[in-house]
Amino acid sequence: MLETLDAAAVRRWCDGGLEALRAHQREIDDLNVYPVPDGDTGTNLVLTLTAAHEAVAGPVEPEPGPEGMTAVARLMRRMARGALLGARGNSGVIVSQILRGMADTFAAAVAVRGGELARALRTATDAAYAAVARPVEGTVLSVVAAAAEGAGRTRSDDLATVAKAAAQAAAEALDRTPQQLPVLARAGVVDAGGRGLCLLLDALVEVVAEGETPPTALARDRLPVVSDGDRLPAVSDGDKPLVVPDGDKPLVVSDGETPPASAHSGMQPMVAGGPAVPGSGSGDPEDPDPAVCSKPFTPIGGPAATTVLPISGHPADRADPGQGQAVWRGEDRVDLSHPAGHEDECAGYGFEVQYLLEATEEAVTRLRGALDGLGDSLVVVGTGDGDPPTWNVHVHVTDVGPAIEAGIEAGRPFRIRVTPLVGHRPGPERRAAVVVAAGDGLTALFEGEGATVVDRNPSTAELLAAVHKTGAGSVVLLPNDANTQAVAVSAAREAEAAGIRVSVVPTRSPVQALAALAVRDEQRPFADDVIAMAEAAGACRYGEVCTAQRDALTVAGPCRAGDLLGLVDGEVHVIGGDLTDVSHRLLDRMLGGGGELVTLVLGAAAPPGLEADLRGHVHRTWPFIELQCYAGGQPRYHLLAGVE
User: Fold this and answer.
1) Using the 8-state DSSP alphabet, how is residue 389 labeled?
2) pTM: predicted TM-score of the whole model, two decimal places
3) Residue 393 and residue 415: Cα distance in Å, rounded?
4) DSSP code of 37?
5) Of the residues 57, 423, 483, 595, which has the fewest C-beta atoms closer than 10 A?
6) Quick one: average pLDDT of 42-70?
């Protein structure tokens, strides 16, 4: 058995954890408890840990780093950072924060023994709860908290003893989740995110016990069953199983977060530090903008993640390469503030892009070729020192996005600066919107509103790249799915570290995003504009028609796989077998509560005559309603409806 956790053991843990999640991916997907088609927890956890696995693939020097951190601490930070940037769904974000909490504890440890592991799990619990706006017990949060408590109870410094105690306590907490969330009990399943975390802890036990099978693993190699021994069919809504209101029981989300306020109670925009509403800022009387949290976010890796590292031994290299600064490339001194022929070479290129990059020499060679085809005034400097080396990249381009994406593909860019050249509005004054959507029609609609569109179920890195691609200093994120909101908030935090002001309006449907973009006005202050967009989105009730993926018991009664479901604000209200009939009943249910404007977005599988039929039904039944209809082309959902 291992006495201490070293870098090689962390790699084996990451390998084993990813292998276990892949082996149980479908099982965890099936633990979700809602029948609509969406991203699933097992898939999201696999994608998140795959990003972490890629992050730890490179070599790590065994000697302490510049901050005195050991190799295991540096590798753990890379693992946590990779998980954060690759996080998918609420479950992925929470697991990335668990890894971050462990990495923070390891950074201060000389060696990682049992006591350090117990402290790391306590820190991980704090980080996981802090990542969720409204923590809910009976989720992955309860499981990690139990793991930390079980590890602490051992009062042992033996690594294997503490790891086994944590895994055992997590397994017991997982078994209790149906008692804490009625929706899990009704479906006869345990929490999906918690199940994934238990697999990761089991993988850790196998590493520190050097091949010993955790005693909890065999007991959890099957899905939980209900009391009569017949496993109920699981139903799925990705990472967000919902409880239909029963009396005064609130809606809950399985990965530790209650859903945002419904359309009836308004919608609060969120920034990296909290909701962007009047009086909800940092609490500092000196904070000029109460709608934006002024508390700075420190990326994983601490100040080094956002500080220019020395490129050579020359004093000038330690300076921030800003106005008038110079860096060195071999024997040649290069002035980055005024590249040769700057005034003439600016012609035809709208932006100056500059960032620091951690990447291998081979990757930088490919990067030079890619950037050379995108723009001019290209300078990539560095001595090759470090593992991986740090480079300073500078280029003039017409489109910011590809230049930053090329850096992300090559390595880890940071301290990203985008400066409009002569004749362009300064970046900090520009505003932009980033929207998550799928379907050619919806993409065209949002792009027509001036928004940058990201495909459904994005990672933190993909949203962050889209924010940088806008070249704007103030950006609104519209996730259009409760499952993507945690990812959007993580991307907002990362963007803040790069000096970009980002607010998240927690839209849960594309029709809410359309309503929000319709009231956008760049003439008013950014905070006021965000609040107006949030109010417009919150005033838009949304409906959906989709096909049930499995048998389930809903508030509207039982449904079978293949049935058509009509949902209003995320709850099943209509069940049927005919698309036209279900769509009529859904619209009548929504308009029965009032409304003046109806927006319909037809899915990719909508039959040719559906639009004409729905127009006729609305005009006959609700003659005073204004109707807008679009071909969205979105997958999975045959119809999206918004009522304002």
Assistant:
1) B
2) 0.61
3) 11
4) -
5) 423
6) 80
